[in-house]
Specification:
Layout lengths: L9 H12 L5 E2 L10 E3 L4 E6 L18 H24 L3 E6 L6 H18 L2
Parallel strand pairs: 3-4
Antiparallel strand pairs: 1-2, 2-3
Helix pairs in contact: 1-3
């Protein structure tokens, strides 16, 4: 598992490229925020997490539990989900809007653009 990247993954870079093309400017991996969000849009008071479907148990074909050592994986991935929930709650209590983008949603450029536009649009009207 040492080779599994936590930052600058391909899905994350795809989301950053699309956000930039849509005109958003952002910061990366702010250590002072709970969960160290992948992308932070300070102007819109929004954070984005780009989650891998396997590691965060998305409801898609990539989010399945391995057959070998199932109890180990259930506990490990269950803790990831619990940590995600804790971080989301902490960020929301601090007044941040939390958006989650799943790895499987980054596969097509048009689909990702549409998803980001939908999930970000309510925040645009709130920005100063």
């Amino acid at each position: 598992m040492r080779s599994v990247r936590t930052t600058h993954t391909q899905p994350e870079r795809t989301v950053r490229r699309t956000l930039h093309a849509l005109g958003y400017r952002f910061r990366l991996h702010r250590k002072d925020l709970p969960g160290r969000p992948d992308i932070v849009l300070p102007r819109h008071h929004t954070v984005l997490f780009v989650h891998g479907c396997f590691w965060h148990r998305h409801d898609c074909p990539k989010g399945t539990l391995p057959v070998n050592r199932a109890e180990f994986w259930r506990a490990k991935l269950g803790r990831n989900i619990e940590r995600d929930r804790e971080n989301r709650q902490a960020l929301e209590q601090l007044g941040w809007r939390v958006v989650t983008i799943w790895e499987c949603e980054t596969k097509t450029a048009d689909g990702l653009r549409r998803i980001l536009t939908e999930r970000m649009s309510p925040e645009i009207s709130r920005s100063p």
